[in-house]
């Protein structure tokens, strides 16, 4: 049985796309022995516990500096643990602090590492974040035995950073036990009533961190154009929290669409499907995107999507077949894409069918885990 050491800056109970991917994959591949070093962001969290199939070891003191110190602390603990466990390889979730830990661990204990790239941050953002340690940051890309990327875009970025090794594309997936068709006409009507949505209103939904990179200010601006210029009665449901929440609320009020935009805040992951399925269209006008899990989750429940042609989105969004594109930083383009769906029921149905089909064929977590099993065996 191969023994795998995972470096991840965060893990359960904190949940993001990368953390979901680790758990979904390791839960489905029990024939490996997993250990993980991660940050202890909250003092109340246990230092050690078994989460699914992973022996999780949390380090730090619940302070802001913990993530910056993580690579140095983690490599010391890892070297000590390696004396008894004898790891076959380490697995770094993304190229920042976890990547540093894996690279330092390789140098100290001669254990090769698998690098997984998930982050879709822009090149400019990465330059600003890594300029003071760019030498080490580039080395993270150049030294893994193998690199797994979740989109073609991230594969190209890895090559651009100097990676001359093997790169394998294994996307993220969808939990089809959670994102499955489940709303009856009655439950859908009740949910609309609960949210004060009229039967003749077109429902748009987004699940997103409320931050600049996701372009939600453009989405909010598009509602004014839809309602007052095109004449489509519209409600927008925003699921998520983030630093731009108040700015977006203020923008909706200034644009005269405060009653058309519903801010739902944080909702547990297993509650998201009912809102996404109830909606007519899912939209995220991203400025950058590593892959875009939320899009394929919407496709799984037959909610047509609108996205920008950035990052990993073109891997699954094919114009007029599995979704519609809008332009980056263009709220009128978003409104026009919504209107195209509303005015073309045949196109809407085609995209529903083809969108769900591609998810069932390519993006179930069972299929993704099977692909990762082959990656692990080649490490």
What do you see in this structure?
The chain has 14 helices and 14 strands. With 379 residues, it is of the alpha/beta class. It folds into two domains: 3-173 and 365-378, Rossmann fold; 185-362, Glycogen Phosphorylase B (Rossmann fold, 3-Layer(aba) Sandwich). The strands form two sheets. Strands 3-4-2-1-5-6-7-8 form an eight-stranded mixed beta sheet, sandwiched between helices. Strand 10, helix 9 and strand 11 (261-265) form a beta-alpha-beta unit. Helix 2 (66-85) runs parallel beside helix 3 (97-109) and helix 11 crosses helix 13 (345-362).
Give helix % range: 40-55%
* Global mean pLDDT: 96
Main pleated-sheet profile: 8 strands, mixed
CATH topology of the largest domain: Rossmann fold
Form type: elongated
Number of strands: 14
User: What's the name of the CATH homologous superfamily of the largest domain?
Assistant: Glycogen Phosphorylase B
Number of domains: 2
**What low-confidence regions span 5 or more consecutive residues with pLDDT below 50?**
none
Radius of gyration, rounded? Answer: 22 Å
Number of helices: 14
Strand order of the largest sheet: 3-4-2-1-5-6-7-8
CATH class value of the largest domain = Alpha Beta
CATH architecture term of the largest domain = 3-Layer(aba) Sandwich
Compressed to H and E, one letter per element, the order equals EHEEEHEHEHHEHEHEHEHEHEHEEHHH
Class computed from helices, strands and strand pairing: alpha/beta
Give the DSSP E fraction (strand runs of 2 or more residues).
Answer: 15-25%
Q: What separation lies between the terminal Cα atoms? A: 13 Å
């Amino acid at each position: 049985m191969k023994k795998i050491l995972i470096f991840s800056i965060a893990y359960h109970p904190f949940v993001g796309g990368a953390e979901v991917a680790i758990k979904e994959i390791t839960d489905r591949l029990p024939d490996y022995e997993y250990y993980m070093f991660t940050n202890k962001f909250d003092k109340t969290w246990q230092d050690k516990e078994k989460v699914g199939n992973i022996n999780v070891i949390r380090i730090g003191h619940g302070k802001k500096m913990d993530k910056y110190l993580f690579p140095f602390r983690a490599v010391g603990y890892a070297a000590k643990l390696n004396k008894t466990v004898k790891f076959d390889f380490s697995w770094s979730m993304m190229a920042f602090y976890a990547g540093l830990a894996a690279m330092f661990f390789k140098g100290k204990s001669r254990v090769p590492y698998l690098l997984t790239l998930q982050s879709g941050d822009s090149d400019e953002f990465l330059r600003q974040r890594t300029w003071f340690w760019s030498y080490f940051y580039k080395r993270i890309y150049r030294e893994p035995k193998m690199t797994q990327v979740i989109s073609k875009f991230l594969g190209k970025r890895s090559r651009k950073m100097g990676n001359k090794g093997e790169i394998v594309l294994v996307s993220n997936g969808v939990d089809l036990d959670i994102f499955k068709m489940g709303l009856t006409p009655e439950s859908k009507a009740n949910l609309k009533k609960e949210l004060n949505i009229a039967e003749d209103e077109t429902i748009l939904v987004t699940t997103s961190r409320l931050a600049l990179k996701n372009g939600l200010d453009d989405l909010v601006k598009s509602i004014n154009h839809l309602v007052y210029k095109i004449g489509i009665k519209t409600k927008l449901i925003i699921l998520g929290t983030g630093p731009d929440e108040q700015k977006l609320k203020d923008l909706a009020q200034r644009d005269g669409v405060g009653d058309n935009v519903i801010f739902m805040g944080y909702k547990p992951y297993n509650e998201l499907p009912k809102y996404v399925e109830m909606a007519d269209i899912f939209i995220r006008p991203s400025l950058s995107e590593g892959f875009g899990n939320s899009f394929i989750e919407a496709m799984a429940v037959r909610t047509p999507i609108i996205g920008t042609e950035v990052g990993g989105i073109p891997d699954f969004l094919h114009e007029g077949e599995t979704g519609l594109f809008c332009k980056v930083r263009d709220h009128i383009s978003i409104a026009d894409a919504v209107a195209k769906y509303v005015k073309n029921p045949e196109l809407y149905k085609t995209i529903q069918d083809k969108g769900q089909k591609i998810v069932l064929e390519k993006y179930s977590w069972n299929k993704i885990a099977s692909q990762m099993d082959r990656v692990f065996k080649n490490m």
